[in-house]
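tool_call predict_complex ligand=zinc ion
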Amino acid sequence: MENCIFCKIVGGEIPCSKIYEDDKVLAFKDINPEAPVHILVIPKEHIQSANEINEKNSHIVAHIFTVVNKIAEEQGIKESGYRIVNNCGDHGGQTVGHIHFHVLGGRNLTWPPG
Ligand code: AMP
Ligand code: ZN
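tool_result ok
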């Protein structure tokens, strides 16, 4: 997808601090971390938001959760706990229009979010 910053990261046009990659998914460090561990997990395929998840592509979301599980273990936050966040649309606070799951951990996260 043209002009999508995360597609450009997938395509190698924009660098990232890569944490995990396979044929469907890429995970990299958030450029503006909100916690000691703040990683974004994205599908390589351009999907705009959670609104575009359907029966055909939902397997990617399921796969992303298995990847999160591995990342949490590698990052040492599996036992202490962490948060998986997906912001959808304007009111959800989504600023990048390529679906992504934040993995936040390494500190005590407060609830509810703002
Ligand atoms: P959201 O507000 O849920 O759309 O989250 C977008 C996230 O992408 C923010 O936490 C940004 O810090 C992060 N971000 C934006 N550009 C980059 C980039 N080039 N590399 C890594 N993270 C980025
Ligand atoms: Zn994209």
